[in-house]
Amino acid sequence: MSLVAVVRFPGSLDHDSARRAVEGLGAPTAEAWHADAELPAGTTAVLLPGGFSYGDHLRCGAIASRAPIMAAVRRHADAGGRVVGICNGFQVLCEAGLLPGALRRNATLSFVCRQMDLEVADDDTPWTAGRPAGDVISIPVKNNEGAWYGDPDTARVVLRYREDLLGSTDRVAGVASAAGNVMGLMPHPEEACDPLLGSTDGRLVLGGLLEEAA
Prior knowledge:
The chain has 4 helices and 11 strands. The protein is α/β, with parallel strands linked by helices. A 9-stranded mixed β-sheet has the order 2-1-3-4-11-10-9-6-7, sandwiched between helices.
């Protein structure tokens, strides 16, 4: 059976909510433990959730990026499989070299937790299909080191903040690999899938995984 593998590192916080969100959209999930050498059988897409993997020691995502499971994630991505990293998962993908840039302390030097409006910057990705460039979606952020730093002229920018409280270069909220099959973003789409939470725009991003897992 096709499924979405949700990677869990020591210190992950959002793996359960990520799995609930994906399953609520109709795709089965399975946990992939950080020490596993392979992804679960039948994996067609991978989700790296938010949290504070390994206590954010060294740098956010640095230790997790070298965990055994990441070799399997890299093979999956290199073969064209879809991967999305949310918050700490984004940090892990950058540290692993699967996405460009790095994440650093917010400009406020404090934890930011609030709903954010994002602009679609690239409408030709699995993560934004059907939403034109310039369209606005609403997804919350909750992070302390969420300011993306990199070269927006060479990175494939997928989402930008309308009002950037984090201090990201060029208001970047999410970037993709050159091929578009790997994406990372600081906002939490799994927290924007239920109308009771105020927005269902997170389904847009997670839908990029479900197409592969259908």
